[in-house]
Amino acid sequence: MEDTFTDSAGIASTPAARAEDEVTNRCVLTTRGTGMRPTQATEHQAAVPQPGPCPVPPSGSPVRVRPDGGTGETVGGIPAGLEDAGVVDADVPAAVGRVLDHALADRVARAHAVDALFAEELAGAVARFTRAGGKRTRSQLLWWTLRACGGTDEVPVAAALRIGAALELLQTCALVHDDVMDGSALRRGRPTLHTDLRTRYAGSAPPERVGRFAEAGGVLAGDLALVWSDDMVAETPLPCPTGAVVRRLWSDLRTEMVAGQYLDVQGQITGSYSLVRALRAACLKSGRYSVERPLALGATLAGADDATAHALSCAGLAIGTAFQLRDDLDDVFAPSRRTGKPSGGDIREGKPTCLVAVAHVRAEARGDRLALAVLRRSLGDARLTEAGLDRVRDVLIRTGARAAVESRIDRLVAQGLRRLDGVLPEHGAGHRLRRLLASVTDGAAPDDGSPPPTTDTVVTDDGSSPPATDTAVPDHSSPPPTTDTAAPDHSSPPPTTDTAAPDHSSPPPTTDTAVSVPLAFSGTKECGR
Predict the structure, then answer these.
(1) Would you say the C-alpha torsion 237, 242, 247, 252 has a positive or negative sign?
(2) What does the DSSP 8-state code read for residue 73?
(3) For the chain, how many helices (H) and strands (E)?
(4) Cα distance between residue 173 and residue 238, in whole Å
(5) pLDDT tens, N- to C-terminus, the chain (529 residues)
(6) DSSP per residue over 156-189, as a string?
(7) What is the pTM of this model?
């Protein structure tokens, strides 16, 4: 057992946790020191944005112009009634949905004015995909950060809803492009956008040409969603100091999202399963884009001080990285009925996830040539069967990679939430934000909503792997329980005992004496901080 230490704030921690905190202490926004910081709330409220030109709806637009020249919108261009923060608090996803409905109706009407076919097949498809939405997690994170930091006035409330809607459109761009790059046929349990186009035009030309057309249409649809998201941000009235920071954050967010996606596909083509690179891609793809930047946007709109913004940044990066690790696990182990897409997509695409990288490290350390052969043969095999995927699951379980990633998720979430202690109010909006952050890594959790039975484990840097004992247990969506014992002598690889050929619809319990992974996996320092 590790010794505990209680700091001046009364927070108990272990040496491993304090080491992780030291790493996270370096998680400072890249804009820090450049003057791109939010000002105090009083300064924000003092700067009143100048009114823009009267909006002129395009021909056929559903926006109704009142006799006084208005369009039924309130401050900042949101539907009437949503300027009251209390109304939005009652149902944030619904409020963001209303803003999206309003904006998308206008955008599709403008598309009709350009070309009816384009509006029906592309603009309409983007609008439908975005309206169907997911949990609206990013926009909820932005909103509850605004509220936890004291944002209540009409201008920041309207801006938070509009930028939250822009985040949902940006997510549409990311998902549609991701589906094209991965060749995915399903998303949220329905055919992907480019698959719909392929079906619509089947028989119009040779299958290869139709496929290329459908992929091109998917790229264009994602581009259109990106254009619309940028429009939402650009057309949001904000005071000058706040507007400058928001635009910088928005620019950084988009660049980081693309960088993370590029590292993802680059790793696929090179077959590089470096744990350092995998963690960096996870930080950029989800750590910043999905959690850290939405928190930063909310803090900026509320006029949060530097200390609060820094704490939120560190918390967001840790929990956002955990969010990507959960997604990696769900892709392999969660059933399709919960994820809305086929299981094992990352394996068939050969994605260099942290889960696979840890399995490589452990298999190499113990000299497990059979496990390495399974990984080499299966990763990137687009025709991998369910039986082949079961063999990969077996490797991920036997090497302890799954248990290590589960433990890392728990530690990152705890680390992130600890950053908010004493920074946000413990009640009201602060409580809602903490609860939301704690839930973003739930993923495709068991139907009863119970958390996985995991415990914190020792993290070392020798790359060796713990012994694992395999038996058969039902339901592979639940991770194996882990327990801590004394660290083994790593001078020789630990034994592995298989008591039965496991049924990989469920994982066997694994007992880890030490979750041994490189230091690159023990914190978030590889995110460029």
Answers:
(1) negative
(2) B
(3) 21, 8
(4) 25
(5) 445 444 444 445 555 445 444 544 443 333 333 333 433 333 333 333 343 333 333 333 333 333 333 445 555 588 988 988 999 999 999 999 999 999 999 999 999 999 999 999 999 999 999 999 778 999 999 999 999 999 878 889 999 999 999 999 999 999 999 999 988 888 877 899 999 999 999 999 999 999 999 999 999 999 999 999 999 999 999 998 999 999 999 999 999 999 999 998 898 888 878 889 899 988 998 889 999 999 999 999 999 999 999 999 999 999 999 999 999 999 999 988 888 778 999 999 999 899 999 999 999 999 999 999 999 999 999 999 999 999 999 999 999 999 999 999 999 999 999 999 999 888 899 999 999 999 999 864 333 333 333 333 333 333 333 333 333 333 444 444 433 333 333 333 333 333 333 344 333 333 333 333 333 344 444 444 4
(6) HHHHHHHHHHHHHHHHHHHHHHHHHHHT-SEETT
(7) 0.73
DSSP string, 426-444: SSHHHHHHHHHHHHTT--S
In the beta sheet, which residues pair with residue 187? 190
Closest CA to 49 of 70, 75, 71, 73: 75
DSSP 71: -
Torsion, Cα 123 125 128 129, to 10 degrees, reads: -110
The answer to whether 484 and 459 have CB atoms below 8 angstroms apart is: no
Q: How far is 373 from 395, CA to CA, in rounded Å? A: 10
Cα–Cα distance for residue pair 192/117, rounded to 1 Å:
19
Supply angle C-alpha 429, 252, 46, rounded to 5.
Answer: 55
Q: How far apart are CA 197 and CA 99, in angstroms?
A: 27
Q: Which residues contact 290 (CB under 8 A, 6 or more apart)?
A: 137, 138, 320, 323, 324, 440
Q: What are phi and psi of 260, to 5 degrees?
A: -65, -40
Q: How far is CA 515 from CA 209, 399, 510, in A?
A: 49, 10, 11
Q: 3-class SS at 460? A: strand
Which residue type, as a one-letter code, is found at position 486?
A
Q: Please name which of 467, 267, 444 lies closest in space to residue 357, comparing C-alpha atoms.
A: 267
Q: How far is 374 from 364, CA to CA, in rounded Å?
A: 13
Nearest to 261 by CA among 323, 174, 193: 174
- From residue 457, alpha-carbon distances to 162, 280, 451, 480 in Å are 42, 22, 17, 13
Alpha-carbon span 164 to 233, nearest angstrom: 9
